[in-house]
């Protein structure tokens, strides 16, 4: 085979919805303050009995069903997450157990908000190298569990959820070459650390980096796929903040593309944000089978990874 493709996608969000008005009753904020600064209106929040692997398994099961596959067809499970509280068993093994996948390689990928695009590239490489036949690639995070709900600068941002993709071999490459990297000396700008772990960030530093340094990198990811930004039918950026997504998308130059804005309804779901938003675009018919879509993750560690994929 000459490449790999995304055979199907799926997503899942918890039932509980937290509105800006709800948050205004918890901290000193308002609907107007939140929407003017980050563009978010609602977010989904998992309960104490909904762990990360449950969110991930729901999304993965939907992707499997959409691909017409069974758990036995999968031999690699990759879960991108930064909110796995326990060190072992990892999320990938827990998801495999929930779904009944018999004997997969099971690995977690912690690159925070860029985790899914890193994991997708890893699956692409593994399948093309012959190390796996079909992979489940999942982005899942329970940000509510690592959030200080008294800090209005961060608690207004976060949401919980999961998105998944099935990756398999293909005659024609449907997953373009990855462009990835990081700025480790600025890794402190986005953090989940401490005991208990808590999410914190230097918002202005992240905003400047994302809107000034990332556009040429995203354009180069298109170039590696043999396309120009104008050729794209869709752009799915990490759903960090609408005030980052909109200027970044504009500077990339994808003038004919649908730009995912799921952050408005879902908040920042970290590693889940790209597959969650992409799955929704596919489900809504906003992008069609075979359309080229740029997936571009960025955030924690000041890491980034992007590739152009063809819609399932």
UniProtKB/TrEMBL annotation:
Active-site residues (renumbered): 113, 238, 268
Protein EC: 2.3.1.180
Keywords assigned by UniProt, alphabetized: Acyltransferase, Cytoplasm, Fatty acid biosynthesis, Fatty acid metabolism, Lipid biosynthesis, Lipid metabolism, Multifunctional enzyme, Transferase
Gene3D superfamilies: 3.40.47.10
Domain Beta-ketoacyl-[acyl-carrier-protein] synthase III C-terminal: 222-310
Reaction it catalyzes: malonyl-[ACP] + acetyl-CoA + H(+) = 3-oxobutanoyl-[ACP] + CO2 + CoA
Principal location: cytoplasm
Span of domain Beta-ketoacyl-[acyl-carrier-protein] synthase III N-terminal: 107-181
Enzyme class: transferase
PANTHER family: 3-OXOACYL-[ACYL-CARRIER-PROTEIN] SYNTHASE (PTHR43091), BETA-KETOACYL-[ACYL-CARRIER-PROTEIN] SYNTHASE III, CHLOROPLASTIC (PTHR43091:SF1)
Domain notes: The last Arg residue of the ACP-binding site is essential for the weak association between ACP/AcpP and FabH.
Subunit organization: Homodimer.
Protein name per the record: Beta-ketoacyl-[acyl-carrier-protein] synthase III
Gene name, Swiss-Prot/TrEMBL: fabH
């Amino acid at each position: 085979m000459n490449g790999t493709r995304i055979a199907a996608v799926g997503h899942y969000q918890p039932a509980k919805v937290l509105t800006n008005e709800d948050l205004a009753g918890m901290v000193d904020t308002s609907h107007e303050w939140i929407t003017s600064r980050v563009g978010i209106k609602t977010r989904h929040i998992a309960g104490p009995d909904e762990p990360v692997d449950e969110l991930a398994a729901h999304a993965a099961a939907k992707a499997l069903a959409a691909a017409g596959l069974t758990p036995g067809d999968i031999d690699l499970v990759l879960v991108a997450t930064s909110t796995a509280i326990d060190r072992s068993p990892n999320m990938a093994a827990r998801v495999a157990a929930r779904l009944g996948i018999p004997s997969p390689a099971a690995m977690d990928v912690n690159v925070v908000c860029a985790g899914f695009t890193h994991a997708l590239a890893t699956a692409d490489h593994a399948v093309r190298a012959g190390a796996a036949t079909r992979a489940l690639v999942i982005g899942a995070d329970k940000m509510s569990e690592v959030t200080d709900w008294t800090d209005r600068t961060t608690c207004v941002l976060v949401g919980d959820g999961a998105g998944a993709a099935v990756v398999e071999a293909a005659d024609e490459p449907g997953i373009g070459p990855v462009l990835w990297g990081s700025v480790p000396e600025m890794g402190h700008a986005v953090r989940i650390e401490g005991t208990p772990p808590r999410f914190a960030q230097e918002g202005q530093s992240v905003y400047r980096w994302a809107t000034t340094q990332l556009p040429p990198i995203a354009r180069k990811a298109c170039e590696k796929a043999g396309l120009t930004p104008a050729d794209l039918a869709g752009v799915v950026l990490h759903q960090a903040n609408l005030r980052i997504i909109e200027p970044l998308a504009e500077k990339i130059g994808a003038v004919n593309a649908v730009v995912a804005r799921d952050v408005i309804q879902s908040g920042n779901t970290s590693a889940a944000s790209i597959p969650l938003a992409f799955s929704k675009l596919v489900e809504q018919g906003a992008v069609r089978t075979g359309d080229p879509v740029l997936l571009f993750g960025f955030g924690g560690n000041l890491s980034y990874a992007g590739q152009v994929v063809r819609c399932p």
